[in-house]
Input
Amino acid sequence: MVKARNALFVYAVLAVVLSLLPPLFPLRVPELREPLLMLLALVAFTLGLLLALLPSTPRAVLLGFGWLQVLLTLALGFAVGDILVMFCCWIAVPVLALLAGQLRRGPHRALVAAHAISAAAWVGITCAVVTLTVIGLTTDDIDTAVVVYRLVSQFDITLLPWANFATTLTGLALGLTTRWGLIRYRWVAAKLVISFAILFSAFAYVEDSVGAVIEQAEALAASGGSTAALEADGGIVFAGFGLPLLSLVAAMLLSLYKPGGKTRWGRRQKDKRNVRISRTTQVAEDTVELTLRPTHGSLPRWEPGAHVDLVLPSGLVRQYSIAGERDGEYVVTVLREPHGRGGSVELHRLPAGTRIELRGPRNKFPLVDAPSYLFIAGGIGITPFLPMIAARDDWRLVYRGRSRASMAYAAELGGDDRVTLLPADETPRPDLAALLAGVAPGTAVYCCGPESLMKAVEEAMPQQATLYTERFVPTERSAVAEPFEAVLQRSGVVVEVPAGRSLLDAIHEVDPTLDAACEDGICGSCEVRVLGGVPDHRDDVLQNHERDRTDVMYPCVSRAKGRRIVLDV
Output
């Protein structure tokens, strides 16, 4: 919320300054400008104070103020007609998106639909305008040219700005409420640049060019002149709309293919950041909940299913699912495993106030869109499902554990009739085949827990549903490791990978900056793009229905099928 708070204080000051300055252009309702600007400043300042002094303010109250400052901005920009405040939508809408955070499926779909509809309208209107400019260039009738260019002007000052703003603002909101961000991925940043470039070019020269050609055409019509004299100015107008049309088509292709990967800034988001354990809470036998507060700034946005790497004081790096977020702080839940690899024991010993390092989040277990969901959790495998059930409505949860006392969050979950608690000391082993046979077509089945539970679910899965799994420990791998060579495309280096060595180790000799964390094929941090060859997937990141993918691999455990593979490294 720090970014939203700072933006609100800036916006409040900006609104006061604008109220003291004269408008750039004549207003439709000038008497409303100053009182609405002062009200906007008051709303923005009040909301900023709430975020700064009362961060536990109910989310509904914060969103109410957020919507109010957006509506005031829209009223000033489009009803009153203040052009400068119209551009302030680029502050008001991102602030609302930051306040909203991760959207539930319904609002997210509505936002995607609004973005798609406004983008389609923008392309359609631009196509119509380009068609009119072609008619203006090719007609021999000067009166027709006058009518055509007047129509172009009407489109340019009415429908096109609305379509541009609607598309750009819904795109900003989508970027800020999803993992895509605004400048984290090259294709998203390119789309943002395209939208802004088209809008600024419209204000910079297109509107004036259209006005000039109309004036010239009217003068020629009055004097009986020829349309030939319009070719130069008409060509400028055609280019002024034709180039944006090509840019919009390029933006559509960017959305479809999502090329380019992450930007340098986006890759830096995986860097370590310091957090402090603000509190620890016992939530079950041998299970503690840790709340992680950033020491500076705010933590990155995340989506249900995401996990983080915790770099412990001992230097151990361990992965934990994000179980939730409270007031901008991550929540992770840790089961103490005395015979594990040491990370859980160390975390259980850390008191509140301890500083540790955090990497991520990353999400290799995302919540897909589906008509309904069945979540099957075993023990600590409940943690990734907590934010998932909070984000959806049509779901069922089957939760198995050793005993009720050992099942984290059992008390909170037990009051929901969509939840079935199955403590092993009270209930028999569940009939998974019968449970899964009754799922509706299209159901997304999610499973996380002990390996025995995962295998049983995999064996009982019906055809009408799709299974998604996440493992906390790697599966046993018995496949023969054959030698091969890997071409690192960016550097042009070819590395030999013998049978007893991992591809990740070979890559690190050439490029030690490639991300890696668990090195067991679980976390997905070492993901690389495959440009040629066929990967031999041996990881636990890809789902069963993704095992035929040839565009990505996890080199810590996966290898090549054949003698050579080409990587985007």
In short: The mean pLDDT is 89. The chain has four domains: 2-257, 270-362, 373-470, 484-567. Residues 373-470 form a domain with the Rossmann fold fold (CATH 3.40.50.80). The CA atoms of residues 377 and 399 lie 5 Å apart.
